[in-house]
């Protein structure tokens, strides 16, 4: 089983989000799953891979050449796949992963989440989509989606395709279908 994680690569986020990423990576590996990530070595993205490796987990990073060129790549990955663009990266992550967990992050993280979520809704895949948010960062997003649904911009049932978790154990269990 391969679990993809979408998360921040910002070096300015609070350390509690770095710790959460490390904990999630460790939990993924503890449950016998491989980690698929964006292939970076900084911030939450690097922490999740280090967490997985701390428990003997396999890490697969997918990263565009442009980010490799600016020394962003996690060269400790068990497998580092270098691609030509962000679009190719997202497609490769989607192809390799059996489930998706999103941690707090910025616009890139949200873009990845929305693309996977819409793909699930349109039945391009049937893979679990989970948001792990123990600190309430995405509470306004949750409220916005509910608000959009009340105004018929989001179809009923679409928000139910996301599982909102507050613990790493719960998020990984849901990703594994438990």
Features:
178 residues, alpha/beta, Rossmann fold, seven-stranded parallel sheet
Short description:
The chain has helices spanning 15-30, 43-54, 65-69, 86-96, 107-121, 139-150, 168-175; strands at 2-6, 34-37, 59-64, 79-83, 99-102, 129-132, 162-165. By secondary structure, the chain is α/β, with parallel strands linked by helices.
Q: Can you name the CATH architecture?
A: 3-Layer(aba) Sandwich
* Percent strand: 15-25%
CATH topology: Rossmann fold
Using only C-alpha atoms, the radius of gyration works out to 15 Å
Descriptive account of the structure:
The protein is of the alpha/beta class. It has a single domain (2-175), classed as Rossmann fold, CATH 3.40.50. The protein contains 7 helices and 7 strands. The protein has a 7-stranded parallel β-sheet with strand order 4-3-2-1-5-6-7, sandwiched between helices. Helix 1 (15-30) packs parallel to helix 2 (43-54). The protein is globular, with a radius of gyration of 15 Å. The mean pLDDT is 96.
What topology emerges from the helices and strands here?
Elements: E1 2-6, H1 15-30, E2 34-37, H2 43-54, E3 59-64, H3 65-69, E4 79-83, H4 86-96, E5 99-102, H5 107-121, E6 129-132, H6 139-150, E7 162-165, H7 168-175
Parallel strand pairs: 1-2, 1-5, 2-3, 3-4, 5-6, 6-7
């Amino acid at each position: 089983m391969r679990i993809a994680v979408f998360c921040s690569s910002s070096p300015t986020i609070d350390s509690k989000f770095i710790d959460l990423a490390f904990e999630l990576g460790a939990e993924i590996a503890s449950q016998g799953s491989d980690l698929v990530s964006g292939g970076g070595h900084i911030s939450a993205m690097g922490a999740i891979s280090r967490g997985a490796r701390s428990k003997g987990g396999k890490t697969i990073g997918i990263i565009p050449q442009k980010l490799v060129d600016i020394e962003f790549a996690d060269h400790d990955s068990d497998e580092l796949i270098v691609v030509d663009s962000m679009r190719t990266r997202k497609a490769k992550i989607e192809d390799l992963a059996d489930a998706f967990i999103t941690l707090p992050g910025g616009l890139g993280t949200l873009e990845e989440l929305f693309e996977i979520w819409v793909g699930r809704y349109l039945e391009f895949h049937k893979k679990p989509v989970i948001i792990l948010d123990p600190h309430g960062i995405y509470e306004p997003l949750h409220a916005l989606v509910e608000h959009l649904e009340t105004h018929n911009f989001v179809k009923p049932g679409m928000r139910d395709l996301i599982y909102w978790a507050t613990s790493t154990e719960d998020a990984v269990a849901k990703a594994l279908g438990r």
